[in-house]
């Protein structure tokens, strides 16, 4: 798809005293739409990104500071949350923010025909029975440097999906995330 986001990370920065945490850095996310003012969709994306990033970032290294992330939506053609997750991970790595592993986002649409589409367009998402977005953390295992541990940090389901199809989509998302991380 042609979904595009521009992500900027500022860290560590000064945090407002009311949001300051004495034991760790505060994660702040602002999602800006292509045009106009942020609405409920952007607020939901902000909360999903914060809850997904909290277990992934090593915030204890910079207490009483903030990790500020700004996600600017430049074009939305489906898979916006997964694009925001992937863009945020790359921006965090570029900014040198300490992370426990690499975060990957993956969107899968389950079509009425039974097909599962990886990285669907907005049109495909609208025609789908269910759309599932996963946020998966990949990190090297401590006991085996060649093995990768996969940890599910986010699962957002829109529509109805059976447990069997959910598990198949999760496995496909984990494989896609591993390919993305290898890239």
> Would you identify the CATH architecture?
2-Layer Sandwich
Please give the radius of gyration in angstroms. Answer: 17 Å
Structural class comes to alpha+beta
Strand order of the largest sheet: 5-4-6-7
Strand percentage lies at 25-35%
CATH superfamily: GHMP Kinase, N-terminal domain
> What global shape is seen?
globular
Number of helices: 4
Estimate percent helicity: 25-40%
The CATH topology is Ribosomal Protein S5, domain 2
The average pLDDT score comes to 93
Tally of structural domains: 1
Any low-confidence stretches, pLDDT <50, length ≥5? none
- The strand count comes to 7
User: SSE order, as H and E?
Assistant: EEHEHEEHEEH
The main pleated sheet reads as:
4 strands, antiparallel
Beginning-to-end CA distance, first to last residue: 18 Å
Q: Class in CATH?
A: Alpha Beta
């Amino acid at each position: 798809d042609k979904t595009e986001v521009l992500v900027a990370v500022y860290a560590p920065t000064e945090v407002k005293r009311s949001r300051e945490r004495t034991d760790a850095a505060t994660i702040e996310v602002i999602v800006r739409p292509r045009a106009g003012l942020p609405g409920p969709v952007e607020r939901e994306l902000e909360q999903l990104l914060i809850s997904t990033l909290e277990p992934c970032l090593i915030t204890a290294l910079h207490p009483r500071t903030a990790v500020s992330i700004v996600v600017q939506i430049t074009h939305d053609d489906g898979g916006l949350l997964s694009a925001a997750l992937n863009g945020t991970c790359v921006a965090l790595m570029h900014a040198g923010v300490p992370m426990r592993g690499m975060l990957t986002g993956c969107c899968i649409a389950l079509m009425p025909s039974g097909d599962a589409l990886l990285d669907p367009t907005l049109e495909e998402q609208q025609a789908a029975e269910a759309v599932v977005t996963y946020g998966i953390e990949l990190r090297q295992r401590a006991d085996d440097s060649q093995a990768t541990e996969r940890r599910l940090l986010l699962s957002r389901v829109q529509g109805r999906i059976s447990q069997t199809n959910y598990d198949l989509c999760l496995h496909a998302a984990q494989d896609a995330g591993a390919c993305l991380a290898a890239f």
